[in-house]
């Protein structure tokens, strides 16, 4: 399936996926990070920012014009494709939490469409290479999209995830 071993843990539930895809997408580049195993990756964008290790977004040259004005943003929303993840689990126990939860209540890469999202700090743009802080993925993870992060639109200061509350206290 993915080349990365992804065993099921007790209680986890997999479903049969549909026979065909509903849409296609273009990978627009690749993300270059120092991490080649899942265990090495930061758990999430916050841990990635805290580690302070800059990663590179390499955009396919055909899309270079689309970077016009991107350097004016301090932060970007980056969408990427967790290519090594299995896609069939609807109940799963993430390794860092140890409790069974629904896939759509989690930020796990394991989901029917393994799309990851991170808000990153933009450090530099050089041609089609962006240097950013806040990525948590394996080296050569495919890039799906780059968007400006608007704090005025996207930030919700009092947002909560109830099951995660004890960890946020
Ligand atoms: C919990 S996910 C969060 C991803 C993204 N920040 C999000 O919230 O959508 C991050 C984890 O996915 C795993 N991972 C990273 N790159 C991957 C890839 N290309 N395929 C599958 N799993 C990956 C690593 O274990 C990493 O710690």
Structure description:
- With 169 residues, the protein is mostly beta strands.
- It is 9% helix and 29% strand.
- The chain has three helices and nine strands, in the order ββαβββββββαα.
- The chain has helices at residues 45-51, 151-154, 165-168; strands spanning 13-14, 29-32, 55-59, 75-81, 89-92, 101-102, 115-126, 129-133, 141-148.
- The structure holds S-adenosylmethionine.
- S-adenosylmethionine is lined by residues 38, 41-45, 82-85, 107-109, 116-118, 136-138, 141.
In short:
The chain is mostly beta strands. The protein is 9% helix and 29% strand.
SSE succession = EEHEEEEEEEHH
3D shape = globular
Q: What molecules are bound to this protein?
A: S-adenosylmethionine
The first-level CATH class is given as: Mainly Beta
State the strand order across the main sheet: 2-3-8-7-4-9
Radius of gyration: 17 Å
Structural class: mainly beta
The number of helical runs is 3
Terminal residue distance: 39 Å
Query: How many distinct beta strands?
Result: 9
As a percent range, the share of strand residues is 25-35%
